[in-house]
Design goal:
5-stranded parallel sheet; alpha/beta; 4-stranded mixed sheet
Length: 205
C-alpha cells in the first residue's frame, strides 16, 4: 500500500537542465530512468544504453511498426522514443519511473497512462535559457535559434502539465519534484483499493 510506482514525465526546453536534475533524482533508489531511443548522433561523453539507445532511422521506424515504443516524437530532425517493456516492468516493481521526453511525447503518454504525472521544468526566462544554451558550447547559432523558437512553442503547452517546476538551482528543483512525488503517492485516486484493505481483518500491508 502506498508503494505503487509512479510514472513521472519531466519535460522542458532544451537547456532547462532536465538531464542534471534527473541525475540528482536517480541517486535515490526510489527512482529509475527510462533510457530513450534516438536517431541523433551521440554527443561527446554519451554512452550507448546509458545516455540513449542510438539507432538508425530505419531501426527506429521498425520499433514503431512493432509497437515497442510507449511514445515517440520528432525533434530538430531526429526521432526520440521510450521503450515500452522497460517502463512496464519497473512500475510493476514499485519503482518511480522517470521519462525525460519532449512535450509531444508527454501528451501521448498521458493519453495512454492517465495516472502519469507531467512536470514541466523551466528556467526563469527565455534569456536565461539562451545563456544556458550558449554556455554548453556544443551547438551552432542556427541550432540555438531553432531551440529557442521551439522553447517559445513549448511554453504555450504548459497548461497540459500537472506541475511547473522552476529550475533556479538544481537542489531546489529536485526538492520540489520529491515533494510532488510524495504528495502524489498518497492521492486517493492512486489508492482506490485502500477502503477494502482497511476493512479487511489483516488491514493494510
Amino acid at each position: 500500500m502506498f508503494d505503487k510506482g509512479i510514472l513521472l514525465i519531466i519535460s522542458g526546453p532544451s537547456g532547462a537542465g532536465k538531464g542534471t536534475v534527473v541525475k540528482e533524482l536517480i541517486k535515490e533508489d526510489k527512482y529509475c530512468l527510462s533510457v530513450s531511443v534516438t536517431t541523433r548522433k551521440p554527443r561527446p561523453g554519451e554512452i550507448e544504453g546509458v545516455s540513449y539507445y542510438f539507432r538508425s532511422e530505419e531501426q527506429f521506424e521498425k520499433l514503431i511498426a512493432d509497437g515497442e515504443l510507449l511514445e515517440y516524437a520528432a525533434f530538430c530532425g531526429n526521432y526520440y522514443g521510450t521503450p515500452l517493456k522497460y517502463v512496464e516492468e519497473r512500475l510493476a516493481e514499485g519503482k518511480n519511473v522517470i521519462l525525460e521526453i519532449e512535450v509531444q511525447g508527454a501528451v501521448q503518454v498521458k493519453e495512454r497512462y492517465p495516472d502519469a504525472v507531467l512536470i514541466f521544468l523551466t528556467p526563469e526566462s527565455i534569456s536565461d535559457l539562451e545563456d544556458r544554451l550558449r554556455g554548453r558550447r556544443t551547438e551552432s547559432d542556427e541550432v540555438i535559434a531553432m531551440r529557442l523558437s521551439r522553447a517559445r512553442e513549448e511554453v504555450k503547452l504548459m497548461d497540459k502539465y500537472d506541475y511547473i517546476v522552476l529550475n533556479d538551482l538544481v537542489r531546489n528543483a529536485t526538492s520540489r519534484i520529491n515533494g510532488i512525488v510524495e504528495t502524489e503517492k498518497y492521492a486517493s485516486e492512486r489508492n482506490k483499493d485502500f477502503p477494502s484493505k482497511f476493512l479487511s481483518e489483516k488491514g493494510v500491508d
